[in-house]
Design brief:
The complex is a heterodimer of chains A (392) and B (163). Chain A has 13 helices and twelve strands. The N and C termini of chain A lie far apart (52 Å). Chain B is α+β, with helices and mostly antiparallel strands and 163 residues long. Chain B folds into two domains: 41 residues, Orthogonal Bundle (Arc Repressor Mutant, subunit A), CATH 1.10.10; 86 residues, Lrp/AsnC effector binding domain/regulation of amino acid metabolism (RAM) domain (Alpha-Beta Plaits, 2-Layer Sandwich), CATH 3.30.70.920. In chain B, helix 2 crosses helix 3. At the A-B interface, helix 2 and helix 11 of A face helix 2 of B.
Chain lengths: 392, 163
């Protein structure tokens, strides 16, 4: 094959997204109730929207610097210092990106040489694996286990390491499982990471949404880890700002410089309006986040309670806004289960396999919905599983 | 006030019809604890009643809501309390607030006809000795009431499925 081949083989070779496939089926069905979204049901708090509108009124419609507004980067540094006790220099160690997703892509591209391995715990967000492949890395999947509440265990990490291992992805609090890594869980990994000279991509986009009563701990806050961690975060989940497409990365200057270089050529800068709104979010949004967190927590308890009443086993997820119940008893694959549930009861729930093969036998239920909506959808799920049990 | 009570109030302020068992589930506590807290708050007069929010406009029934600003002469030793009582004892009065600023009392009459309101103001309210003046405002349209936007229905505009 020469240059006559129309498309990039690497791109064509990427697995199609399991979410996309399911989405296509769901969109055929107009009146389905969905528990399938990965974004908040809240509107962006008004004072944050207002700040975005104000910036437009003031004619702030220019590019910002490649790395992002100074005010925003400084606010991010303050936030990281206050919440994690980690100090970053706003001018060298912070980059504003188009969503957290861009930062993931950038870190791989900035660090990977062909054949380097990226360790990806799964089930997890859909873009780590394809982004790694596009950066010429070899993705190495670590299958997380239900019995460990989908936390990454040191022995699992150790077993996956080879001399080519370079980056470890830490996707916690986790989408789709709702699993988290607490301080002790992270501490147990540090020696292995340092000994094997790994770098960490810590995706903390759900960091504000944990329900243990203790705030989320970033691995960057542990001794010796700041210099080998890129923290990826953003405004989508905590401040209900998904459509604003704004994220950021904090990390060692050397890596950030290369990430910024790619960002500058590919993106130029993150949307200016969104950056102004995000400054307001960080300055005055803490109370909104607290209220939304409390509301998610109520719904989390509600969903777990309903699943318990149905007799569907589910570990207690302590983060994000997902629960990940096990449906193995029904003898259907996740995809079959989800497709039949949709066809027979018109409820859209994403099969666990959309987030990796180790999601087989599980479903991702999002509880970013009103209690009434959750009740309606889950009673249909109950009717469905009752029928499955009767017919078995 | 303990945090459980505060959380209960936050929820029932928006949804007073919530099932007690469900309330316990949402708050991660037992039904007994919730029932006890509710009882205590009723006994203490913290929870004073349960109302239904109705958008009367949609019923087609003609009703007006009037906000009446009242300026009064405070009485020695009693301040505004006695005159407020004289006013709030009228059954047609829904709310009576003491207000800081340009006037003293805010009196709200809900669900009356125009005639009933004017009758109340001219025959009852204005004739009280201590009332110096009144200014009556009528509500033309309710956009938002008790935190609920009345003019539009919530619609989930998100995609059905997203990663």
């Amino acid at each position: 094959m020469g240059k006559n081949t129309l498309l990039s083989e690497k791109t064509v070779g990427l697995k199609p997204s399991g979410i996309r496939k399911f989405f296509d089926i769901v969109s055929e069905m107009k009146d389905a109730i969905s528990l399938g979204v990965g974004e908040p049901d809240f509107d962006t708090p008004w004072h944050i929207r207002d700040e975005g509108i104000y910036s437009l009124e003031k004619g702030r419609t220019f590019y910002t610097s490649n790395s992002g507004l100074r005010d925003l980067r400084e606010e991010i540094c303050t936030y990281m210092k206050n919440t994690q006790g980690v100090e970053y220099r706003w001018d060298k160690e912070v980059l504003i990106t188009v969503g957290g997703s861009e930062a993931i892509d950038l870190m791989f591209r900035a660090m990977i040489n062909e054949g380097d391995e990226v360790l990806i715990p799964q089930p997890s967000y859909v873009s780590y694996e394809p982004c790694a492949v596009l950066a010429d890395a070899v993705p190495v999947v670590i299958d997380l286990k239900n019995e460990n509440q989908f936390r990454l265990k040191p022995e699992e990490l150790e077993a996956a390491i080879t001399p080519r291992s370079k980056i470890l992805v830490l996707p916690f609090p986790n989408n789709p499982t709702g699993g988290i890594m607490e301080k002790e869980d992270l501490e147990a990994l540090v020696d292995i990471i340092v000994k094997n000279d790994l770098y960490v991509l810590s995706d903390e986009i759900y960091g504000e949404l944990t329900y243990t009563g203790n705030p989320h701990v970033s691995i960057a806050s542990l001794p010796g880890m700041k210099e080998r961690t890129v923290v990826v975060n953003g405004f989508s989940k905590a401040y209900a700002m998904t459509g604003w497409r704004l994220g950021y990365a904090c990390g060692p200057e050397e890596i950030m410089a290369q990430m910024t270089k790619i960002h500058q050529y590919a993106i130029m800068c993150a949307p200016t309006t969104s950056q102004y709104a995000a400054v307001e979010a960080l300055r005055n949004g803490a109370d909104d986040v607290r209220k939304m967190r409390e509301s998610y927590n109520e719904r989390r308890r509600f969903v777990l309670h309903m699943l318990e009443e149905m007799g569907i086993p589910c570990f207690e997820p302590m983060g994000a806004f997902y629960v990940f119940p096990c449906i193995k008893e029904f003898g259907l694959s996740s995809e079959e289960f989800a497709n039949r549930l949709l066809a027979e009861e018109k409820v859209a729930i994403v099969p666990g396999t959309a987030f990796g093969d180790s999601g087989e036998g599980f479903l991702r239920i999002s509880y970013a919905y009103s209690i009434d909506n959750l009740r309606r959808a889950l009673s249909r799920l109950e009717r469905f599983v009752t029928r499955l049990r009767e017919n078995s | 006030m303990d945090t459980l009570k505060q959380k209960i109030l936050t929820i029932i302020e928006k949804n007073s019809r919530i099932d007690m068992n469900e309330l316990a589930v949402l708050l991660g506590t037992g039904e007994i604890e919730v029932l006890n807290a509710m009882q205590e708050m009723q006994d203490e007069g913290i929870i004073c009643g349960y109302h239904t929010m109705i958008d009367w406009e949609k019923t087609g029934i003609e009703r007006v809501t009037a906000l009446i600003e009242v300026r009064v002469t405070p009485q020695r030793g009693k301040g505004f309390d006695d005159i407020a009582e004289r006013i709030y004892k009228y059954p047609e009065v829904d709310c009576t607030y003491l207000i800081s600023g340009g006037y003293d009392l805010m009196v709200i009459l809900e669900g009356k006809t125009l005639k009933e309101v004017s009758g109340f103001v001219t025959n009852k309210l204005s004739t009280l000795d201590t009332v110096m003046s009144t200014a009556t405002h009528f509500i033309l349209k309710k956009y938002k009431d008790h935190g609920t936007i009345m003019t539009r229905k919530y619609e989930d505009q998100r995609e059905m499925v997203s990663p």
